[in-house]
Every structure is written in C-alpha cells, then in structure tokens.
Design goal:
With 282 residues, the protein is of the alpha/beta class. The protein folds into two domains: 137 residues, Rossmann fold (3-Layer(aba) Sandwich), CATH 3.40.50.10860; 136 residues, NAD(P)-binding Rossmann-like Domain (Rossmann fold). It is 41% helix and 19% strand. Strands 2-1-3-5-6-4 form a six-stranded mixed sheet, with helices on both faces. A six-stranded parallel sheet has the order 9-8-7-10-11-12, with helices on both faces. The chain starts with a strand and ends with a helix. The model has no long low-confidence stretch (mean pLDDT 95).
C-alpha cells in the first residue's frame, strides 16, 4: 500500500507561489504520492492551522512571509541556520514537538558552490531584513564573504540580524545601510525582498555592475532584477532556481526523498517547472 506524503505551505499572500506545482513535479520524478497544500493563514490562526495539519497526518510544512520568525519561536529543535537567520522555512512534526531548518540558507550555500560563485573574501549587498535576508546573510557568512551589507528599510531588524550573524561568523563584517544603492560597490547582490514577485520593481541597485546576482523573488517571466543582471553579464541565479533547490531539501527533510543524484534531480525539476510555466505564458 502506497503511503501519501502530506505537506503544505503556510503564508499570506500565496497567490504567486509555485510550490504546489513544484511538488507535483517532484511526485512525477520520484514516483511517490505527494499531496502539497498551500494555505493562506493570518497570524491569528497560525497555531491552530499547524495543529490541524498535525492532526491530519502531515509530515511537515513550509513557511513563508510573514510567519518565518513566529514559527521559529514555536520549535522544539532548530538548526543553526534558522537560529542565526531568525527565521525557519521548513518544519516537520517530531516525536517531541516541531523541528525546523532553514533550507533557503542551505540552498544558497549549495548554489554558490554549484555555480562557481566565489564568495570568499568578497563584498556582498543583501536587500531586505526579513527571513530571506537572514538566510542570505547566513549563507554568505558560511561561505566566508568578507563583508555583507544589509540594505534595508527596517534598520532595527537589520541591526538585530547583523548582530546575530556577526556572533556566528566573526570573519565576516556585517553592516546596515539604508535601502538605497550600497555605500560600497559589492561583488555580489542578493534581492531578499518581495520586489519582483508580490510588488513591482527591483531593489535600488545596479545589478549589471556586480559579478553575481541572486534573486529570492521569482516570477514566471523572470524578474526585472535578474533580467538586468543577465543583460550586464553578471552570473545570475533566478528565484525559480532557489525555489527548486530549497524545496528539494525540504522533501529530503520530511521523507528522505529524493534518492540518487539530487543535483540532477533538481536540474530536471527546474527544467520541467520552466516548461510548465512557458506553456502557461504562451
């Protein structure tokens, strides 16, 4: 008898999320039964929705804006990346309570290595101060960046994030700047805001001037940020790639799947997702 993996996504808004489509592709690639349900959940209903999911037999769930920090505080066990970033995005129901990791952070570390993006000793600018920015900062610190500038509207949250990450990675200089062009020219730029996905536009920066640009937001036709980076010759990593990488890590965390070559698995999933999106656009 085949057992169905039950999981889902909690956040608000979710109307541009492609997670359900992606896990449908994962099911086709693995031959496993996977049921993945996005649920728009306000903060007032978050705890009750989590309890409802556990009662329904879910293995775990993903978390997105605006609940990443709130769910972190509910965990019985959290990995170092989630603690330092101040945000969790992948949770499972453990025997003693909720257990969580930050697969965004770990996906970025993998992507740096796989794409040959040299972060060691280099300067990076991260736009944002939320959970995605924390994941980006952790990945850059783990990958030995020399400097990480958080360009943020919320200076208070950015300062807290900078302090936590400085304690974890003393070899990286973390700083806070206004949400404008970075004060010093970065080698790497990461968009960790909803701009390009849930809001129009892009961060106030020149992506074509950097050697590498990564966008944690995504859209079916590609974000303005990534298009400008590609046009300028920068190594560009789209939000779709990051989505696939972190979702594959989520699947492994919940079930041990996928088996075999996970890099090839992710590449095939990304190809199929793009193919599906292109059919929808045309």
């Amino acid at each position: 008898m085949t057992t169905t993996l039950l999981a889902g996504l909690f956040g608000q808004p979710l109307h541009r999320s492609l997670s359900a489509e992606l896990f449908g592709i994962f099911a086709r690639l693995t031959g496993e039964e996977i049921s993945y349900e996005p649920r728009e959940v306000p903060a007032s209903s978050l705890a009750s929705e989590i309890a409802r999911a556990e009662a329904a037999g879910w293995s775990g769930f993903n978390v997105t804006i605006p609940h990443k920090a709130a769910v972190l505080s509910m965990l019985h066990l959290a990995d170092p990346a989630a603690k330092a970033a101040g945000a969790v995005n992948t949770v499972r129901f453990g025997k003693r309570g909720l257990e969580g990791i930050n697969t965004d952070a770990r996906a970025l570390v993998e992507i740096f290595a796989e794409k040959g993006i040299n972060t060691e000793g280099r300067a990076a600018a991260v736009f944002g101060a939320g959970g995605a920015a924390g994941a980006a900062g952790w990945a850059l610190g783990r990958s030995r960046a020399a400097e990480v500038m958080f360009c943020a509207r919320n200076a208070g949250e950015a300062s807290k994030l900078s302090s936590r990450l400085s304690a974890c990675f003393p070899g990286t200089a973390f700083s806070v700047s206004p949400f404008t062009q970075p004060p010093r020219k970065p080698n790497i730029i990461i968009n960790a805001t909803p701009l390009g996905m849930y809001a129009p536009g892009m961060p106030p920066c020149g992506p074509q001037e950097a050697s590498a640009c990564l966008d944690m937001a995504y859209s079916a036709g590609g974000t303005e940020f990534i298009k400008k980076a590609e046009a300028g010759g920068a190594a560009a990593v789209s939000g779709l790639e990051i989505l696939v990488w972190q979702a594959a890590l989520s699947l492994k965390y919940w079930s041990g799947l996928p088996a075999g070559d996970i890099v090839e698995f992710k590449r095939e999933a990304l190809r199929l997702l793009r193919e599906q999106l292109n059919k929808g656009i045309s």
